[in-house]
Amino acid sequence: MQTAEKVIQSIYLLPEEEKEKLAYHLIHYGITGSPPDSPEILDLKQWQDAIARKPFDLNQASEYLGISAVTLRRWVKSGRLTACRAGRAYTFDVLDLKKFKKQHLTSTVGES
Fold first, then answer.
1. What does the alpha-carbon distance between residue 87 and residue 2 come to, in Å, rounded to a whole number?
2. Cα–Cα distance between 95 and 48 in angstroms, integer?
3. Which residue has the higher pLDDT, 107 or 63?
4. Which of 1, 5, 89, 97 has the fewest CB atoms within 10 Å around its CB?
5. To 5 degrees, how large is the angle CA 29–CA 58–CA 31?
6. Is the per-residue pLDDT at 34 higher than 90?
7. For residues 64 and 83, what is the distance between their CA atoms, to the nearest angstrom?
8. pLDDT value at 41 more than 50
9. Segment 59-88 mean pLDDT
10. What is the pLDDT at residue 106?
């Protein structure tokens, strides 16, 4: 039986050029969705929703946003971004981070 571990192991054995092709397809279809004529392998929406249910910690959130943990803490303290806090630990709702990133941290091509 084919398992994720076996597939990952075989990916490591691929030539670098083939790994790049695979990475391109995974990223491209992860963003745009699968082409309509491709067979359904994985319910991407369900998979993304499952990931989004698990909150990010401070390090995961700062990495996702492409900023330092210090900057993220400052944004939370200033009210720019919301987080749950338990003691010194922060947790962030993934869907809130995604919406924030789309609204505040992305720019369109050709924008100066």
1. 44
2. 10
3. 63
4. 1
5. 10
6. no
7. 15
8. yes
9. 93
10. 67
pTM over 0.70: no
> If you write DSSP's letter for every residue of the chain in order, what string do you get?
---HHHHHHHHHTS-HHHHHHHHHHHHHHHHH---TTS---S-HHHHHHHHHTSPEEHHHHHHHHTS-HHHHHHHHHHTSS--EEETTEEEE-HHHHHHHHHHHS---TT--
Structure-token pair, residue 94: 């993934």
- Encoded tokens for 90: 């922060």
User: Does pLDDT of 103 surpass 80?
Assistant: yes
The domains of the chain, with CATH numbers, are 4-41 (no CATH), 53-104 (1.10.1660.10)
Spatial neighbors of 66 by CB under 8 A, at least 6 apart, are 105
Q: Are 97 and 103 in contact (CB under 8 A)?
A: no
